């Protein structure tokens, strides 16, 4: 990208290719196997000729770093030889889209061993004489969508293996290399800076979408980040209790009022890798006592989890730690009464106020792959059933820590109507918090050999830091 942005070396993708080759060899994949991948396709919007802005398919990006659409790639498992297949474009492309690049250009740009055209795939594969073609075929544990296996004319000439590759490469992506970790630090740093720009300009009277616009502008202008990793959530007031606010039906279009808490969940993307950071702060720069209590409860849960993270710790235990911390603080403040923490845990009281999972793996996808590869099954209990991984933490994982405390009408009313939960609820006290929405404090955290590294470290986090930053800025 431009001056001051992070340069991504081709060695990063070469190392990734070696990682999957070494893994397959260690799993005794038969000699002579070749992996074949199809990159993302350029699509048009519905029945129009308007191109949807292209972003590369994540597995293909991880292996090759290719930015362009309609490529294929092959990797010889035995020697890790890499081959790209580029589309053969018409001469008119040069008029509309720019210079027609040569195979030699792409060989140099992406640091692969060979480049051919996509209409030569069968010819080149026949020269390789693979014992089998390993292709991707599986189901994403977050979206529940099936991965679309590659296809090409003449594919039926080869022995196809659809069972080996998907989980193996997904598992490889879970543990980040040193080069990937450098990108994750960069994208988190710039996303934090963009969040601070938003905090500087937000005040009562502005629209929620001004926060989204400011974030995107700063991330692209200062970080070279053209895309964000997911739909921006810029929620004020009661909207902050809507976990995925900001969608087409609620497009961050409320006016911010004096006294509102803001919950802004945004992460920029660079070279395909994304951050996922949530900041919560008062629109007018000063916390009320109730806002301060909710915020400090959430921050205490966040810090408790980060302090406990290290290799060997089961992620569901971290979710339960966050929930327990929230319940304990609610008991101290008198929102929950007439029982012990253990009794309230059995009644799933924590899930009323934190109805989502604690956090998720992150990398080339905001909800990154591998959460349920080589992992215990999903836990079918309120709240924790939305946890996007049950894995045990390992060095090299990057995961979000995002406890939240919300006063959502639907869940509170359902709890009032449930005798097993209502008996613990101090309704008069809880009603004082209705309408404020909620607080989420979300960080990107890398698991290290002895603990964890906070990647999103450069945003104000304590009540004092936030108030000082906002009042200094405004």
What topology emerges from the helices and strands here?
Elements: H1 10-26, E1 33-38, H2 58-64, E2 72-76, E3 82-86, H3 93-96, H4 103-110, E4 114-117, H5 121-128, E5 132-135, E6 160-161, H6 165-174, H7 178-201, H8 208-223, E7 227-228, E8 233-236, E9 261-266, E10 268-270, E11 273-274, E12 277-282, H9 289-308, H10 315-333, H11 341-346, H12 350-353, E13 398-401, E14 404-406, H13 409-416, H14 419-422, H15 427-431, E15 438-440, E16 443-447, E17 452-454, H16 463-473
Parallel strand pairs: 1-5, 3-4, 5-6
Antiparallel strand pairs: 1-2, 2-3, 7-10, 8-9, 9-12, 10-11, 13-16, 14-15, 16-17
Helix pairs in contact: 1-2, 1-6, 7-8, 9-10
Q: State the distance separating the first and last CA atoms.
A: 32 Å
Rounded radius of gyration (Å): 24 Å
Q: Number of DSSP helices?
A: 16
Strand content: 5-15%
Structure summary, number of beta strands: 17
Shape: globular
The overall pLDDT, averaged over residues, is: 97
List keywords for this structure.
474 residues, alpha+beta, three-stranded antiparallel beta sheet, six-stranded mixed beta sheet, 36% helix, 14% strand, globular
Task: Please characterize this protein's 3D structure.
The chain is an alpha+beta fold. Helix content is 36%, strand content 14%. It contains 16 helices and 17 strands. The chain has helices spanning 10-26, 58-64, 93-96, 103-110, 121-128, 165-174, 178-201, 208-223, 289-308, 315-333, 341-346, 350-353, 409-416, 419-422, 427-431, 463-473; strands at residues 33-38, 72-76, 82-86, 114-117, 132-135, 160-161, 227-228, 233-236, 261-266, 268-270, 273-274, 277-282, 398-401, 404-406, 438-440, 443-447, 452-454. The strands form five sheets. A six-stranded mixed β-sheet has the order 4-3-2-1-5-6, sandwiched between helices. It has a three-stranded antiparallel β-sheet with strand order 7-10-11. Helix 7 (178-201) packs across helix 8. The longest helix is centred in the middle third of the chain and has 24 residues, at 178-201. The mean pLDDT is 97.
């Amino acid at each position: 990208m431009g001056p001051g942005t992070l340069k991504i070396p081709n060695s990063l993708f070469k190392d990734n290719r070696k990682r999957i080759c070494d893994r397959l060899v260690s799993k005794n994949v038969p000699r002579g196997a070749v992996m074949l991948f199809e990159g993302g396709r350029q699509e048009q919007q519905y029945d129009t000729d308007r191109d949807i802005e292209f972003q590369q398919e994540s597995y293909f990006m991880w292996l090759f770093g290719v930015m362009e659409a309609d490529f294929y790639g092959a990797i010889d498992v035995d020697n890790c030889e890499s081959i790209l297949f580029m589309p053969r474009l018409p001469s008119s492309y040069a008029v509309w889209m720019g210079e027609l690049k040569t195979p030699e250009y792409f060989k140099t740009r992406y640091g692969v061993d060979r480049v051919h055209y996509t209409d030569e795939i069968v010819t080149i594969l026949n020269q390789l004489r693979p014992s089998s073609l390993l292709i991707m075929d599986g189901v994403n544990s977050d979206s529940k969508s099936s991965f679309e296996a590659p296809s090409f004319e003449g594919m039926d000439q080869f022995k196809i293996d659809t069972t080996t590759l998907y989980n193996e490469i997904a598992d490889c992506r879970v543990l980040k290399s040193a080069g990937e970790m450098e990108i994750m630090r960069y994208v988190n740093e710039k996303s934090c800076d963009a969040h601070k720009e938003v905090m500087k300009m937000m005040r009562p009277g502005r629209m929620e979408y001004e926060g989204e616009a400011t974030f995107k502008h700063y991330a692209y202008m200062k970080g070279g980040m053209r895309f964000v990793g997911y739909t921006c959530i810029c929620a004020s007031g009661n909207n902050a209790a809507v976990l995925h606010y900001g969608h087409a039906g609620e497009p961050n279009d409320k006016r911010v009022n004096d006294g509102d808490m803001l919950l802004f969940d945004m992460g920029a993307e660079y070279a395909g890798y994304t951050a996922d950071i949530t900041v919560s702060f008062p629109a007018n720069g000063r916390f009320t006592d109730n806002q301060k209590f909710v915020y400090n409860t959430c921050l205490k849960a966040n810090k408790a989890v980060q302090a406990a993270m290290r290799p060997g710790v089961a992620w569901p235990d971290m979710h339960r730690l966050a929930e327990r911390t929230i319940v304990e603080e609610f008991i101290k403040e008198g929102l929950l009464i007439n029982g012990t923490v253990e009794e309230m845990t059995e009644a799933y009281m924590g899930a009323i106020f934190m109805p989502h999972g604690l956090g998720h793996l992150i990398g080339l996808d905001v909800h990154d792959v591998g959460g349920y590869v080589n992992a215990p099954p999903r836990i079918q209990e309120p709240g924790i059933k939305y946890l996007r991984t049950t894995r045990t933490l390992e060095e090299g994982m990057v995961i979000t820590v995002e406890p939240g405390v919300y006063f959502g009408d639907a869940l509170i009313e359902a709890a009032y109507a449930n005798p097993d939960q209502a008996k613990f609820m101090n309704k008069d006290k809880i009603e004082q918090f209705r309408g404020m929405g909620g607080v989420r404090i979300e960080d990107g955290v890398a698991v290290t050999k002895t603990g964890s590294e906070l990647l999103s470290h450069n945003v104000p986090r304590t009540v004092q830091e936030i108030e000082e930053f906002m009042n200094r800025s405004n």
